Amino acid sequence: MNTSSTPELPVIRRLSEQVVNRIAAGEVIERPAAALKELVENALDSGARRIGIRLDRGGIDRIEVTDDGCGMSPDDLCLAVERHCTSKLRDETLVRISTLGFRGEALPSIGAAARLTVMSRQRGSDSAWSIRVEGGAVSPPEPCAGPAGTRVLVEDLFFATPARRKFLKSPRVESSHAENVVRRLALSAPHVAFRLEFDQRVVLDLPAQDRAARVAAILEAGQADGLLLVEGQRGDLKLSGYICAPSVHRATANGQMLLVNGRPVVDPVLRTAVRVAYRNVMEHGRHAVVALSLEIPPEQVDVNVHPAKTELRYADSAAVRALVIGALGRALGTGAGVAGVRPDLLQSRGPSPARIWYPPERSPDAADLSTRVAAPLAPLPPADPGLSPGFAESSLPLAALPAARKAVPDAMLEHADTTAAMAHPLGAAVAQVLGTYILSQTADGALVLVDQHAAHERLTHEILRAQYLGGEIRAQRLLLPEVVDLPARQVDVLLPFAAALARLGIEIEPFGGTSVLVRALPALLGKQNPAAMLRDLAEELEADELATPAQADALDSRMDAIIARMACHGSVRAGRRLTHEEMNALLRDMERTPRAGTCSHGRPTWLKLEKADLERMFGRR
Fold it and tell me: Which of 122, 307, 586, 600 has the largest CB neighbor count within 10 A?
């Protein structure tokens, strides 16, 4: 009887070149977008000025990239499809890498996993040459017809590795990833024209353009009313680019285009710095829209971390974070009116209707529109009782228009400051709508809507913040201390922070049981409901497990959120009627106050309708 058998000993053997290439291809080419990235990078490194890209079914069936770069000879083609053959490394130190590609893995990896055809012609050459690689098997180069430059065709991606192919997503998802790759590469080379087609449908068609125009085209910030310029330097590090105001944001980080030495990257250090810079001006859970370029000495960054070349290591990541946070903080520190939001209702609604004919806008007795809009400053007839009670006294009843039109010139002479006010970014106040929104007009004919509570909340927040950073928020002692009853849990949270809250102008002390005695409140907030404010502050402190009385630094990190809660309680409420002077004063303060484009919770404080937008809405253009 055979009681045992000798196990077969493992034998080390050399894998075939085809198997090696297929294994390596899994690292470099994980999906069609990864293959496309490598091909476009090669085109850019070849000096191309025009790049055409076509994908069928998200690149699963077909990827075609055509460029007008330097081209390759037959010998170059043979080397190009061999692993670790490249023309892009000038030495073997892997330090001063100035090209997008350098590893020599892209074409061999693609050829190992798909059917690859490369056709290329050098400038001045009599003919083009073609080479084909199918599942790792290389055919000799053959002459063919073709223009100067290179055309790469990838068909049946992952046909040689079915396990990888079955894990691909739908063509729609793969197309989305591919488009994102092309947008990032197009941003890195604004001097190059790009054309992208999906299933014979043009998705992107960008001419060669300057960086500002390319950024505007790539970010597609349709709601944005202007971009903010970013510039900063810290030693040998230099940061430049453009960002959207915090009122423009997205659900994912796909709107963050980041370049390091011209290379598109998905870098956690930079993304974290962007998130920190926007933290106090943007809604929680939303992501900023930015296009940033970092220039760093090559010896201070390692790009050879991953085959995809999108991850980096910095010699001094803290310096990089500090530069990005500081530069973005300065750009975001502008007052309202510089860059904001345009309402979604302006998005395309399909084909434009036929142009409507209107009578001439100028008639003998007609005043200029900008003059009539400013009419609320003049004495007006009593308001129509049918109007919403939320309208301010300055609202014009329809019946009063003919009389008001004739009275406007004299009224404007009495209020000559209106013209000057319209020259400001947020313009001159026209009316208060629904007791909540301030309507104003700018000199170029745009209409601006301001949320009075959101705007005043930010102004109050910034004043309180400045006082806190200056040492202490000024407190106003109550004539009669107020006793506030709170849940026992909130009392237990607040009382240990009594000393810290005193720096915020809030003086509290225990009053037995679940009661707290309030002796002072911040002077800036005026008369407030202490109970509501203390409940909110308790929630803020309770939300951060690291904020303890013994850890002052941890508490300071939460102070901006705590001050935001206080500012909300001390701001002008919706429904409060404002005088014309109060409205204009609020607009001017918004323009002077840093971060005033959004409230303390990250929502926009103002929206803008350009004259052209209004004309489109009414079918005038």
Answer: 600
